[in-house]
Structures are given as structure tokens and as C-alpha cells.
Fold:
Amino acid sequence: MIVLELGVGQLIDADGRGPDSPLVGSLSDAVRIAQVAEAAGVAGLRLLDAVPGFAVLDPTVVASFLAGRTSALGYLADVSTTHHAPYNLARRIHSIDRATGGRAGLVLRPGEGDEVTDAVVPDAAASDSKERWCEYAEILRRLWDSFPSEALVGDQEAGIFVRDELIRPAGFDGRFYRVAGALDGPSSVQGRPVQVAAVTDASEIACVVGHADAVIVDIAAAPLADAALTTELERRGRTRAEVALLGRIQVPPGIDADWLHDQVTSQSLDGLVLTLNGTIHEFLALIESAVSRLVAPGPARSLREALGLAPVAPTAHPPDTGTSATPSATPNATPGALPGAADARSSVGVGREATA
Structure:
């Protein structure tokens, strides 16, 4: 599968733009890219929240806007743990996921504390950004699993609105965060939004694999990533098919489909995340000439299915706050998969948390 990466905003510092800066376009450019990408069979767009030299729009707002102008394309919003309370972010992504029929996901990036979080952190000595990431990712999973769709009954004759016994409050008490309640709406058709981790090298996979549905790794580190991912998943009693491995690569204009296909098959990847330091015209040409030859448009489906991942059923939360594996999933053969690539894979209490 193919995911395209871009930011939406405007240039504010031409000198600050690096030679490898991803493409940043206007909102109208993004609409055109999204529509062309959807027609070509692209799985989704990764929307960035920071690009050197540019002021970019909030990717969750951009995803909401673009989703109303497409019907099958998925959206992955890049968000840092900094300045985003877990409950608030979980509810925001969850709302997009429900409104789009299961086409939303999140690339969660490790961040530092902020003035609000630091004021109420349960453990003042906690400072490791990777540990913070794991806590945050676990909270997101618990919240997204807290209100399964079958809990919403709406039986007027029986006088039952919600089956309270199916609601699972997050009940998380960690070093960085405390979150008590459940979300205030049922899950989408894909069970929960897709949670993605972006790593720079294979050594970081062990940290994120307990929570990630997909892992994005720089293409230079891809040769070691598949073995590291397989080993770590097996250690946790999971299979390689449960997590999609995507190689991020900055492609030069004019690259052909055969070269992109070779990147997938030669490095045991499940797909690619493509970024381009060029023009909107060059990006559209890449989609229409190369990407469209790698994937085939399929029927409207969830982002989880587009990434080769099976829908998940919410599971009971573990009694502790440590890293836990997500439920096992049976891999699906996915429409639009890359040729030759492996097929991947009473009342409700409102959530309360101690961070803002």
C-alpha cells in the first residue's frame, strides 16, 4: 500500500526550509492531491504538524476538511504528545474516525512536557520521552476501546439507551498521566483509529511495537526493520502480520513505479510512505504516473483495511499501567495491495483526566 506525506500551510522562512523538507501546499492544493490520490488507490495521507520553514495547519483540522471531499481515502494526523492532553486528542481523532466511517488514524510522536502537564504530572521525576509516549499510546488505546459500538442500544421500547456493563473506563494511573473515564461515543466500523509509530532506526521498534498498528521507518533503516519487528512481536506473543511496516522515502521527481516496487519487495516492507521536496505539479505527476501503477482503486473501506490490518474488537484493560500488546488480528488480503508485497495485515461517565 502507498501513503503520501505532506503538510498544509504556507512558507514563512525560505532560509529555514531544508533540502529534504516535505512538500507543503495550500488547502486547495491538498484537496486536489487528496482527490487524485483517492482515484489512484492510495491508502491515505499522512498530514504533518511541523515542517521547517513553514507554518502548517493543525493536521486534525485538515483531515476533517479533506475527508468531507473524499469518500475512501484515509487520513493519518501527525501529533506530538506535547500540548495535547490524551483524553482531548483521543476524543478528537475518535470523532473524525466516526464521522468518516473509519478512515482516521494517528501518528503519535514523542514529545516533552508542557506547562499544563508538568503542573499535574503524577511523578515529578518522570522525564523520559519514550516512556511518556508508551503511557500516552496506552491511554489512547484504552479510551478508544472504552465505548464499543454494541454498547449503544437505543431501544426505546425497552427503555435502554446504553448497556452500561459494556463501558470500560480507562482507569489509567501512570507516571505522566492519570485518566479515569470512558469516551462519550461508540467506536467506528474499524474498531479503533489506526495508531502509527514513526521511528528513525530499527533499534526503536522494541519501544513502540506494543502499541502500534503500523510502524513507519526511514528507508535507510528498512533492511534491519523487518527482522527487528518480527523478533519483538514474537517475543510478545504476536505475529508479524499484525503490524504493517512502511518505509518512508523521499522520492525525486520522475521516479518510476518499478523502482518503488523494488523498494518494497527487496526490503520486506508492506508499503511505502512517499514524500517529495518539489512542486504540487510534480507530486500530482508522481501519483498519476507511478503510484497509480502500483495500486488499484478498490471499494470504500476503512483505513485499517486499506493498510492490510483486520478490524479489532475492544479488549479488557490490563490491571497495570505497563506496556501491553494489542489484540491479535488475522491479516486480510487488501484491495489495492502492492503486487508482490505480503498481504498485511442508565448513563455513560465522561472521561476525566488530571492533565489538560
